[in-house]
Amino acid sequence: MTVDDSAIVSQVKALGVVPLTELTATQQADVYGIVKMLKPARQCANGRRDWQLTFQVIDPSIQPQSKISHITSNLFYESQDWLPAIQGPGDIVICKNVVLRPFNGTVQVQKIANRSTFIVVDPDTLKQRPNAAYAITPTENDWKMIRLYQQWAKDRKATDRPLPTMNMPSQPKITHLRTDELQPNYFPYFDYVGQVVAVNLQGPCMVFLLTDYTENPQPMDDEDLPTGVDARLLVQCTLWDENVRQCPAFQHGDFIHLRNCKVKQSAYGQLELAVHGEKNLQRKFRKVFKLDPADPLLAQLQTRREAYEANKRQKRRKVNSIHEITVGVVRTVHKHQTMNYSSNQTVMHTDELPKKWKIRAYLTDYHPSNAKDWVVKWCSRCDRSYGQSSTTVCEFCKSGSLQYTYSACLLAQDAQGVKIPIYCYGKDTISMFPDMPPCENRSNKK
Fold first, then answer.
1. pTM metric for this prediction
2. Would you tell me which CATH number, out of the four given (1.20.1250.20, 3.30.565.10, 2.30.120.10, 2.40.50.140), belongs to the domain 3-158?
């Protein structure tokens, strides 16, 4: 044992903690250590189908000449959410009120029902990861041990002395590819840097729409995506397994760095990205990162983004100038004249509902296609519509106050090219055509 490690072990004992090499079978204790190896959680195939988590821990007392190289923990819980939130090698773990059992010439940590708890701390940030089954706050002594082990691990890395028998995953050197460099039969792994356009958690996977402002050789054919970005510049990316669990929180406009991507061709012929989990435990490493906008990796992407935005502004000025010359009668339906205009993009991505908006857009499509079918009967008392029914009494409130109004769905596109569906009905739609009330329109079939 080195002098440094001996000093650490002495501090561990001074805090009243038993080092791993001095633990004995059948002993009940608190076990402190750093994760050396982690097997992915799995559900047992028989019995109660509990979830199993197996990991190994080490501490400064374990040396090459020690009788043991680690201590194994083998835990079973009814729910996967109740397992300790260990993400990989290097995590600091405290096993509280556990029992030690003989196992393969050494000892194994097993939990005691309704008594054992586990504290898992991120080795970089020292933030405790929560557990869905219980809430536990580390004691002052626990935090002293956590900081001691964090410093021990950092000192090992700074002096190029790896943690004993610590098998940290290797990160292969691979190339970066842009969207326009993707090929259907490209098999090697690669890195990708892009901007998040949309993100959605779909069951066991997480799906992103990304862009690096280069064209996808086999793009999506949906031009009506409400993203504000040309569909030809988009690429879909799907994260799987531990990459979903370890993924930072992303929102529209954030920048992302993906490691170990694979390109695939969808059933519709589109080129997409996928980041799968690792079956080889020794090769597990973090593959999804959120980048600061000033990160050097984004230099070329930011240049392309600025050029794309400048081109959009130029097109917008042309569109607006044409509208200023050719515009006819403009009818304002809403009453809030002092509201600022909002883009369709802002409306589509808001979480503030319900809310009133003021937009400037032009009509690209509408339904029903025959305008005379827009006229429906409507009860002003209970706000129900009856299509083109011949009834004169509201079937719900029995009111005889049915009147004609307009009901239609409009598709409006703004200067940024973003489309938004608008459903119109009720009393406010009558003001859309003040010179042609819906009752006259229906009776005269105009």
1. 0.40
2. 2.40.50.140
pLDDT digits (tens, 9 = 90+) for 306-323: 999 888 888 766 555 544
Instruction: Tell me which of 1.20.120.740, 2.40.50.140, 1.10.1040.10, 2.60.120.10 is the CATH number of domain 179-300.
Output: 2.40.50.140
pLDDT tens-place string over residues 233-282 = 999 999 988 888 888 889 899 999 998 898 988 877 888 999 988 776 55
Please tell me what DSSP assigns to residue 176: B
The torsion angle over the Cα atoms of residues 385, 389, 391 and 396, rounded to 10 degrees, is -30
- Residue spans of beta strands (DSSP E) within 23-172: 28-38, 42-43, 51-58, 71-77, 92-103, 106-111, 117-121, 128-129
Helix (H, G, I), strand (E, B) or coil at 276: coil
The angle, 0 to 180 degrees and rounded to 10, between the axes of the packed helices 3-14 and 140-158 is 170
Place of tokens 């240049």: 303
What whole-number distance in Å separates Cα of residue 392 and Cα of residue 402? 6
